[in-house]
Input
Amino acid sequence: MLPTLTATTWILLMVVAALCGIAKTALPGAATVAVALCTAVLPAKESTGAILLMLMTGDLLAVWSYRRDADFRMLRRLVPAVLTGVGAGALFLHLASNDSTRRLIGVILLLLVAITLIQRRSTSRRASDGASATQASPPAPTLEIQKATTTLATPTTSGRLSRLVYGSLAGFTTMVANAGGPVTSMYFLACRYPVKAFLGTTAWFFFLVNLVKLPFSISAGLVNTTTMSLTVICAPIVIVSALAGRRLAERMDQRVFEPVIVALTIISALPLLR
Output
């Protein structure tokens, strides 16, 4: 397969590799764009395998960077639900054709964008309501109002049902489309982790999930000599972009970049639905 790839395809694969690296250390949303681009230039199942190996390359740098910051207790609680989702995704890949896999990836990407936008709007609205309540209250009970606002703004994320829903959906979407990032980001944000704990838990989550996915992906034919060859060629770009992403994260204005990522995700997902 490799000798038949055009120069344009190779350029796009280099962009995919760079996005995979940056996604692991600076911009999680970049992985969604990488998935869509890779699916546009390779058959759906081959693209899923290649993306998985590229992301695992970035995982190694991410877990080293945040090796002391993960909430391993939370990760252990999510294991049963995630394994259920991964198993369901593996079964789907065994039964689905390239066309149906491509369309499902497109639908999943659009749904995850919608979920993410709804969650952000809801969070902003709660923060605005909390600020208004605090300003309108007399000085004495301010602390009580802040406590109440915090309680209302924090979804119940520790229950079994929440872990089952989020974990299963994350396992399924990451198995089928390597697109579980928005689901887990929403869940970990709702857990109100500090920045380092959020990044560390996310890094270790995907490192462990991708390790679990690897045997399923090999069994389904997603990881093969072609995808491994592609990864070997693209790995240096993944590593360099991941290292650059660590520096970029210190200077980047996330408020500007996130809307761009959302727009690019929508644009790149639409062609997959045809």
